[in-house]
């Protein structure tokens, strides 16, 4: 991850053991535990063992950390949808399955950042921008759903926008219960969600 620039244009450097990535990870953990609005820069400084003034040698503001975390979550999901949109070798139905399968992989790989994304409520400009990007992703997934319907691969009696929200909702529910290193690995979860979403639970 690129280090944020200081006001003079140079890169900010963290103390040994507390590089930019470490500071971000600890911040996201704290935001998820206490809530973004309920966490101060002083709280983060204490978490890292800094003085309140020293934390500003690492990051310019709390909102900067939030923006980095939300960019991490949204960037992964955006990349998945963009790859599917550009894949002309398979039909829309297979591209839609690809998006859902890989979205699970993104969530597992970036679970703390995705958890934070799902908790934002639009209380700041950073959060409002993230919510706009989420709506754009919903719209792009709905467009894939419409394309799959048009090619005759998907039923047409459920609104594409609703299908999009339900598919992402199933994936997003993982933040409530999935834990890395638990009894079910990420690949099994990706396979199960994709199978249930597209093939259902009926025995054939």
From TrEMBL:
Span of domain HTH tetR-type: 17-77
Classification via Pfam families: TetR_C_24, TetR_N
Residue spans binding DNA: 40-59
TM segment ranges: none
InterPro entries: Homeodomain-like_sf, HTH-type_TetR-like_transc_reg, HTH_TetR, KstR2_TetR_C, Tet_transcr_reg_TetR-rel_C_sf
Annotated keywords: DNA-binding, Transcription, Transcription regulation
Stretch forming the signal peptide: none
Entry superkingdom: Bacteria
Protein name: TetR/AcrR family transcriptional regulator
Higher taxonomy: Bacteria, Bacillati, Actinomycetota, Actinomycetes, Propionibacteriales
């Amino acid at each position: 991850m690129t280090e944020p620039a200081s006001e003079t244009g140079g890169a900010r450097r963290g103390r040994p053991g507390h590089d930019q990535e470490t500071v971000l990870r600890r911040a996201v953990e704290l935001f998820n535990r206490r809530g973004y609005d309920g966490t101060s820069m002083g709280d983060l400084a204490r978490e890292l063992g800094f003085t309140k003034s020293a934390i500003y040698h690492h990051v310019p503001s709390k909102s900067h950390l939030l923006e980095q975390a939300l960019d991490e979550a949204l960037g992964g999901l955006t990349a998945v949808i963009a790859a599917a949109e550009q894949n002309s070798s398979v039909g829309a139905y297979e591209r839609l399955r690809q998006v859902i399968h890989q979205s699970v992989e993104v969530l597992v790989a970036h679970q703390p950042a995705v958890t934070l994304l799902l908790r934002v409520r639009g209380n700041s400009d950073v959060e409002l921008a993230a919510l706009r990007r989420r709506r754009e992703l919903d719209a792009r997934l709905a467009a894939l759903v419409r394309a799959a319907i048009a090619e005759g691969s998907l039923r047409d009696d459920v609104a594409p926008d609703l299908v999009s929200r339900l598919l992402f909702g199933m994936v997003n529910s993982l933040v409530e219960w999935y834990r890395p290193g638990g009894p079910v690995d990420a690949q099994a979860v990706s396979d199960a969600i994709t199978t249930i979403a597209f093939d259902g639970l009926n025995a054939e």
